[in-house]
Amino acid sequence: MKPLNEQISEVIEREPVAVFIKGTPEMVMCGNSYRALNALAAVGAPVTTVDVLPDPQIRQELQAISGWPTIPQVFVKGELIGGADITEELLASGELQQKIDAALGTEREQKVEAVALELA
User: Fold this and answer.
1) Is residue 17, in this structure, part of any structural domain at all?
2) Which of 22, 37, 50, 101 has the fewest CB neighbours in a 10 Å radius?
3) Taking the model in full, what pTM does it have?
4) Number of alpha carbons in the 13 Å side-chain half-sphere of residue 104
5) What does the buried/exposed string (b/e) look like for 82-100 if buried means 16 or more CB atoms within 10 Å of the residue's CB?
6) Residue-number span of the structural domain to which 26 is assigned
7) What is the CA radius of gyration of the chain?
C-alpha cells in the first residue's frame, strides 16, 4: 500500500478535476462541498471526488500538500483552484468555464465519481 500523501498526490495529478470533499457525491456532508460540486456541475466539469471524513490523516496530508486549510479543495489539472467561495466566484465571473474549457477542452463527458484512498 502506498503512503497516504502519495495516494493524494496521484489523485491530484491524475484526475482532470479532483475535489476533496466531506462526504460523497451521493451524500455530501458539508454545505461548502455541495456548493463547490454544484459550481463544477454548472460548467460541465468531469469531477473525481475524495471523501476526507474516513480518517483525519487524509485532511492533514492534503493540507500539507496544498497549503490550503479548509475543505473542499478543488484542483484542475493538478492546480489548486481553492474552496467553495473561490469556485463560486470563478463561476459567476465566467472564469471557471474558461479554466475548465482551457484545461480539458470543450468536448468532454460530464461525470462525477468517487475515489477511495487506502487507509492503513
Assistant:
1) yes
2) 101
3) 0.95
4) 27
5) bbbebbbebbeeeebbebb
6) 4-115
7) 13
> Of 77, 65, 60, 63, which is closest to residue 18 (Cα–Cα)?
77
Alpha-carbon distance values, 22 to 33, 54, 93, 97, 116 (Å) = 6, 9, 26, 24, 12
Q: Does 120 reside within a domain?
A: no
- Distance, in Å, from the CA atom of 108 to the CA atom of 89, rounded to the nearest integer, reads 23
Scanning the structure block, which residue is given the C-alpha cell 477511495?
A: 116
> Over the stretch 8-40, which tens digit does the pLDDT of each residue have?
999 999 999 999 999 999 999 999 999 999 999
Q: Is 40 helix (H, G, I), strand (E, B) or coil?
A: helix
Residue 110 lies in a domain: yes
Q: What is the CATH number of the domain that holds 70?
A: 3.40.30.10
Amino acid at 5: N
